[in-house]
Amino acid sequence: MAGIIELERVSKHYTKSIIGVDDVSLSIEDGEFVTLLGPSGCGKSTLLRMIGGFEQPTHGRIFLAGKDVTWEPPHRRDVNMVFQDYALFPHMTVGQNIAYGLKMLGVGRAERDAAVVEVLRLVGLPDKIDQMPHQLSGGQRQRIALARAIVRKPKVLLLDEPLSALDARMRDQMRMEMKHLHDKVGITFVMVTHDQEEALTMSDRVVVMESGRVAQDGRPQDIYDHPASPYVANFIGTTNFLPGGVVAADGGTAKVAVSGIELTALTDRPQRAGDVVTVGFRPEKLRVVPPEAACGNILSGRVSEVVYYGLGLRTALELDGGETIYVDSLLPDSLARSGLPPLGSRLAVAVEPHNVFVFPGGGAP
Ligand code: ADP
Ligand code: MG
């Protein structure tokens, strides 16, 4: 079945040399919460604006609910957009702000009032109906902007960095509220963010973008545990990278020489002995083991730096092979009492084969 949004090889060339979006194909299911994630300038907003009709592609086609809307203006599409700065009308009450779109559509007074009351209840602000925007907090204004965007019950809601104007506390709270709102209204949400945590916690699916293209498209956990490239592994979470060479490969297992030792990796990409690869593993997947431990997949070295970050410790470990890696460990009570590991002390860490990424080619991002 075709998705509610279908992008067919969509590109946006602003000029010959400025390519905003480069050959993106994407299918979004009805009711999904999809996030476009990537660093500034990778084309997220351009892609979102093209779905909304605020920008036209230079190549490719866009379908909404099966209909080719590539050349349709925004008001002819069953979508609504929430902008970063909310853009509420300052001289109108909350109720008037929300009702405005319905009024323009010719919806009658009684129906408008009922819709406003219902949507204010949905965003948890039923008592703000007669207030002016300046009387509200940032988080409340954002909720009103959401209410205004969903009151017309569009099939798709487009959100461009909707939480970026909020302070950190409010952002955390709004993340959960927006997710709940999405579950309640059943509208397809497509959200743009450069914040990986936002993407991982809020969405059903994350589309990671790199220079106008899709670098990876998958569920948050798949992207975190099976990044498609060093770029993705580096942008989402933290990854240690080491240059390596495949020593032996057999089906889904590879032995890779890194930093003077051999690591075993489970990998779904075919490897051949002699291949030059980049190995990656996440700091929190490393387990501190006794130096004489007999199990495999152990890296050892000397502690060169220890940073306390509340939840735990990040330890820089200078490997015997010369490279430095980071090890994250939750802080056990005993360690908190006895103090941090001394600089220069020996440390060994083990990594499970399924936590070792093997990427083709040399060169960490
Ligand atoms: P993001 O939202 O991921 O930060 P954008 O979609 O805004 O990225 O921009 C993607 C690329 O397109 C950037 O190189 C940006 O400078 C360029 N770009 C965006 N809008 C325009 C425009 N109106 N005219 C020319 N170049 C643009
Ligand atoms: Mg943007």
Automatic annotation (TrEMBL):
Its EC number is 7.6.2.11. The keyword ATP-binding applies. PROSITE patterns: ABC_TRANSPORTER_1, ABC_TRANSPORTER_2. It catalyses: ATP + H2O + polyamine-[polyamine-binding protein]Side 1 = ADP + phosphate + polyamineSide 2 + [polyamine-binding protein]Side 1. One of its GO terms (cellular component) is ATP-binding cassette (ABC) transporter complex. GO terms for molecular function: ABC-type polyamine transporter activity; ATP binding; ATP hydrolysis activity. The keyword Magnesium does not apply. Keywords: ATP-binding, Cell membrane, Membrane, Nucleotide-binding, Translocase, Transport. Residues 5-236 form the ABC transporter domain. The complex is composed of two ATP-binding proteins (PotA), two transmembrane proteins (PotB and PotC) and a solute-binding protein (PotD). Belongs to the ABC transporter superfamily. Spermidine/putrescine importer (TC 3.A.1.11.1) family. Part of the ABC transporter complex PotABCD involved in spermidine/putrescine import. Responsible for energy coupling to the transport system. This is Spermidine/putrescine import ATP-binding protein PotA. The gene is potA.
